[in-house]
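Just scan my protein:

——
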Amino acid sequence: MLLTAIILPVLLAPFAYFFERQAKYLSLLAGIFVTLLGLYMWVNYPGEGFAFEEFYPIFPQWDFNLHLGVDSLSIALITLTGIIAVLVTLSSWNIERQGAYFFLILVFLGAMVGVFASLNYLWFFIFWEFTLVPMFFHIGIWGAENRIYAAVKFFLYTHLASIFLFLAILIIFINTGHFDFVAIKQAGIPLELQKLIWALAFVGYIVKMPVVPFHTWLPDAHVQAPSPISVILAGLLLKMGAYGLLRWNIELFPEASKHFIYLMLAIGLLTVFHAAFKALYEDHVKRMVAYSSINHMGLVLVALATLTAAGISAAIYEMVAHALIISLMFMIAGYIHHITGTWYISEIGGGFLRKFPFIGTLYMLGALGALGFPGTAGFIGEVTAIYAAFDKFGWVALALPFSAVLTAGFFFWAIRRMLH
């Protein structure tokens, strides 16, 4: 079942390329299939541990076996992957060069399911790297005027960071002879070696999230990418970093993780405030939303730093809620550019809500969700993260409500300049 969700999009990809008129329908079909599979697993999940496991021996002597399985975290993110694939397909319905475009969407979809379903660290890394290629070409071919610069910068940042992740995986295999999650967890790696592995992998994950100071590739990628690809970047690609940190660092090495909680807290707080101030200053609507994404991923890192049930739950909820909210924001930003011809808030000149009340209202609702307004999905994750951080770190965490004020500030400032 999980293998089918990985292979089906990849098998459909060549048909999408050669039968261009049917490409978008094949992409839509694959997205719906993954969504329905996620919902099926959610309904039938036993409640704890890994379920729906599949094991395919390839090179058993090297522990290079395709081991697939999901828990509630994986199921949520696989379902999210399918939903976003459907939304991206619908919003790209009239894109140019549809064969090549949806070929890459389908390859990316299969790789994303592999990332969230793999319980073999080496296969996880292979799927992880596979996601880079479609995004590189999506930005480089369908992007704006500086697309080549943004695509190369995206690829270099994320690929170079992956070298650290690969070194961590290699050290694990040399010392345990295993790539399998369960086998590694039971191998009894010495604490000092765990800390080295944790630190190396951490670099790979935080560049993908991304957080300060490794975040500069993301605003450029968002500005140059087509709006549907920005949805994939913010809604899925960033979540890979947080997922990897939670699954393969915090869950796999809980004792080593305790030695890095203040590093995660410091980087998370720095990211939250840096991104909020940059967004407050920004005039480019997509770049502002990009900094909003970075701001939220900083909050996710702070929540993960608590290593508590409340903090981890808050991080997961914030990841999913942010993916849905930010997808709406990027789609609306793309539509605003389509009807106004500009990305700059100052050039839109106000009055947008009177001219386009439906789109303006959607933008306001998205902004309210992104800033964590009570009654929205963003509120639950943010409040729980602040509570968990205060419970763990005390008065230091009181800085987080001030970041929420800044987040509200840059969204309301954008609404004031653009919509009214």
Observations:
- The first helix runs from residue 2 to 18.
- The mean pLDDT is 90.
- Strands lie at 51-59, 64-70.
